[in-house]
């Protein structure tokens, strides 16, 4: 028994071909019928005029019998029929050529060739309808191309981020089975296994959070609360980290309230502060400021690190890491979560980096 497999692209292509074939037949019939009706209407009008002229002897110089009149009308009718058919089917190629081209490009798109673009010939491309069709098709193709690139990068990075801690856990678990290990070595390897397990758990949690946020379009559980106090509390979470690195912490803000989801906003500040501490060298400085004008602007700044212009456009992408080797801490999910949470609050976030100073600026509506 043979099982036939069909890809999504094959199904799309098959549907497109069926719809286009049906469209060709209908368009041909409509166009031919339209031309024929125009010519038939012309025939009726001409025949009616001749009938009036002869019946009422309006133009005496026209002398004809009833038999000649019928012959004339019949000849005009036959000519109209053949002319209408010839024009209809003859212009079929010209009328359907753009549709054939669209079909061809859509088939290429359905087969996975996202580089394909639609371009009609000049006489046709000047018409607004065809011009809009061109732009819509090319926009769709560009979006599919970008989506495919993101999907590929996502799978590659996702596989790498999960594989690294798993390999590490498996390796140190094998080492623990050796009888020659000292108690200190066993404890050290156990700590590494614990650390990598937590890293794996953190990555899985972040991915679940991001997936949940991406499917959420409405902000829930919002309330008015003191966001200044929340930032100070988040800063205390990392006290051991920034004290170990002897970092200078500057909190330059008064008391501000905001209408937001406290749990979500805590994720934002935890991720931003964790990144700031991580990338600030020893004896560096981290400053946080809040200003209120047309919006509430929160800025988290750290010294000692700089993001290139090329990378700063990508840092909010899922799984993006400036460290291409993925040797550093983090998994490239945190900033994607931050961006999504800020957008759910109808706010904006962007990064600025120059002269070894990096800032993340959040604008929240008042």
Describe what you observe in this structure:
With 366 residues, the chain is α+β, with helices and mostly antiparallel strands. Helix content is 62%, strand content 13%. The protein contains eleven helices and seven strands. It has helices at 8-55, 66-90, 92-110, 122-125, 128-176, 183-214, 227-237, 239-244, 262-279, 309-312, 334-344, and strands at residues 223-226, 248-252, 257-260, 285-292, 295-303, 348-354, 357-365. The strands form two sheets. Strands 2-4-5-7-6 form a five-stranded mixed beta sheet. The longest helix has 49 residues, at 128-176. It is elongated. Mean pLDDT is 77; it is low at 1-8 and 323-331.
Tag the structure with descriptive keywords.
7 strands; disordered N terminus; five-stranded mixed β-sheet; single chain; 13% strand; two-stranded antiparallel ribbon; alpha+beta; 366 residues
Topology, pairings included?
Blueprint: H1 8-55, H2 66-90, H3 92-110, H4 122-125, H5 128-176, H6 183-214, E1 223-226, H7 227-237, H8 239-244, E2 248-252, E3 257-260, H9 262-279, E4 285-292, E5 295-303, H10 309-312, H11 334-344, E6 348-354, E7 357-365
Parallel strand pairs: 2-4
Antiparallel strand pairs: 1-3, 4-5, 5-7, 6-7
Helix pairs in contact: 1-2, 1-3, 5-6, 6-11, 7-9, 9-11
